Amino acid sequence: MPQKDPCQKQACAIQKCLQANKYVESLCEEVIAEMRRCCQVHAGNSICCSGFKDSKPAESKSSE
Fold first, then answer.
1. What is the DSSP code string of 28-63?
2. Reduced to 3 states, what is the DSSP secondary structure of residue 22?
3. Do the Cβ atoms of 53 and 40 come closer than 8 Å?
4. Contact between residue 48 and residue 11 where contact means Cβ atoms under 8 Å apart
Protein backbone atom coordinates (compact mmCIF):
# COMPACT_ATOMS: atom_id res chain seq x y z
CA MET A 1 0.00 0.00 0.00
CA PRO A 2 1.56 3.35 -1.03
CA GLN A 3 2.36 5.82 1.71
CA LYS A 4 0.15 8.93 1.88
CA ASP A 5 1.81 12.17 0.79
CA PRO A 6 2.60 14.16 3.98
CA CYS A 7 1.43 17.45 2.40
CA GLN A 8 -1.62 16.13 0.54
CA LYS A 9 -3.97 17.56 3.18
CA GLN A 10 -2.56 21.07 2.64
CA ALA A 11 -2.60 20.70 -1.15
CA CYS A 12 -6.28 19.71 -1.05
CA ALA A 13 -7.03 22.63 1.29
CA ILE A 14 -5.49 25.04 -1.25
CA GLN A 15 -7.65 23.64 -4.05
CA LYS A 16 -10.78 23.83 -1.91
CA CYS A 17 -10.01 27.40 -0.82
CA LEU A 18 -9.24 28.59 -4.35
CA GLN A 19 -12.42 27.03 -5.73
CA ALA A 20 -14.51 28.58 -2.96
CA ASN A 21 -12.96 32.01 -3.57
CA LYS A 22 -13.05 32.02 -7.39
CA TYR A 23 -9.29 31.47 -7.59
CA VAL A 24 -8.36 34.73 -5.83
CA GLU A 25 -5.03 33.70 -4.26
CA SER A 26 -4.98 36.59 -1.79
CA LEU A 27 -8.01 35.08 -0.05
CA CYS A 28 -6.12 31.83 0.54
CA GLU A 29 -2.78 33.17 1.80
CA GLU A 30 -2.96 31.33 5.14
CA VAL A 31 -3.69 27.98 3.48
CA ILE A 32 -0.83 28.54 1.02
CA ALA A 33 1.48 29.44 3.93
CA GLU A 34 0.55 26.13 5.61
CA MET A 35 1.54 24.31 2.42
CA ARG A 36 4.89 26.12 2.32
CA ARG A 37 5.56 25.18 5.95
CA CYS A 38 4.74 21.54 5.21
CA CYS A 39 7.00 21.57 2.16
CA GLN A 40 9.90 23.02 4.13
CA VAL A 41 9.71 19.96 6.37
CA HIS A 42 8.73 17.27 3.83
CA ALA A 43 10.05 18.53 0.47
CA GLY A 44 12.00 15.33 -0.20
CA ASN A 45 9.06 13.07 0.65
CA SER A 46 6.15 14.94 -0.93
CA ILE A 47 5.12 14.89 -4.57
CA CYS A 48 2.64 17.66 -3.75
CA CYS A 49 5.57 19.97 -2.98
CA SER A 50 7.15 19.68 -6.42
CA GLY A 51 5.56 22.96 -7.52
CA PHE A 52 6.30 24.71 -4.25
CA LYS A 53 10.03 24.00 -3.95
CA ASP A 54 11.27 27.17 -5.66
CA SER A 55 8.25 29.39 -5.13
CA LYS A 56 8.69 32.54 -3.10
CA PRO A 57 6.19 33.97 -0.60
CA ALA A 58 3.90 36.70 -1.97
CA GLU A 59 5.56 39.40 0.17
CA SER A 60 8.62 39.44 -2.12
CA LYS A 61 6.69 41.15 -4.94
CA SER A 62 7.74 44.72 -4.09
CA SER A 63 9.90 46.03 -6.95
CA GLU A 64 9.09 49.72 -6.68
1. GHHHHHHHHHHHHHHGGG-GGGGGTTT---GGGG--
2. coil
3. no
4. yes
How many CB atoms sit inside 10 A of residue 34's CB?
16
All residues at 6 or more sequence positions from 32 whose CB lies less than 8 Å from its CB, including other chains: 14, 25, 58
Q: Which amino acid is at 22?
A: K
Name the DSSP class of 1: -
10-residue averages of pLDDT along the chain (64 residues): 84 97 96 94 88 55 42
